[in-house]
Amino acid sequence: MSDEAYVNGVGSSLSMDRSLSIEDLVCEVATNALSDAGLGLDEISAIFFSNSLSGILDGQASIRGQAWLYALRPERVPIFNIENAGAGGATAVAMGRNWVLAHERPVLVIGAEKMAGRNLTDLNKIMEPKLALDATNSKNALGCDTSFQTTIQIPQNSLRVAREMLHQGTPVEHFAVVAEKNYKNAALLQSNSRPLYSKEEILCSPEISYPFTKLMCASFADGAAALVLSNIKQNSSPEIYGVQLKSGIQETGSLSNLKQFSSSWWEKMSIGPDEIDVVELCDFTSVDQLYQLECMGFFKEGEAGFATISGETDLTGKIYVNPSGGLVGGGFPIGATGVLQVVETTHQLRGSAKLRQRPNARFGVCLTLGGQIYEEPDFASMVLLKSVQQI
What we know:
alpha/beta; globular
């Protein structure tokens, strides 16, 4: 049995062309990942497919992978469909890695979501009843503008964390600087098709719920990504060195336990935050990026905002944070997010990230959070990935 799994091929699309169907996006990224790995679909032993909302939005309630890959004719290949909210893509990566370790044969991992270009009022109404317990009442109690039409719902943990950080003295301007950096990174990744916003524009954009303005929050997006994983080491193939998953209800919410979760991860992997070159975080809002950086040990409490201002989280800083633009800069295609993070990390560790390339990147970490449970906010599933390029 193999004890190593490598990323041999990648493909991704965060499409601004809303005429593309989800089938178009899925087949495009799958074909590109297979070509990148130098494999045909007939050489793949399994497919792990992540999607969160198409059962609600498109009526494709089951066998989504089989339906949307039909044009590629994946005959005799088992397809596993995964729904795990924002952590679905990362869950698919973990399951694909485990299959490779057990079967020593290549797999294809895909995440896809088509959310943009819809009536957002209807979309919010559709999504809220599908969340655990009463999201609407919880959001109203926290003072969210439930009628706002142009941004994704703010996770309740984000509001709680933002208010805690303001209480400890973190300026609102720090949240805007994080968002400004994310939009810049997203523009580099997507060939400047994404808009750039200054700190002042971000602060002056419409308020959703204090301290968040529209441009500090992740938006709905169309996106898909694919990976070919195998136990064969190619010249530029980074290794998925370890995966850690956690799910469950916590009395104070699992974000409160992120520090403990991260500490056990560093100990398990015999590596520390100071050795990491690139990190992809799950920033539903810009405040989440600061909080996650501090909980994971990259900066001490209260320091992540100042570090961002001084450039320590940028391309040549202490650590390159969200080179993809994250969810705030690049959008949040829910079921694709975890796969997109690994695609970006792979490019960084291969040295193929072009204008956003971190010099001599060796270690990358991806953190994905997903699911919300009320009354006290909680994330139902969490995964931390570490990819290491073998030279």
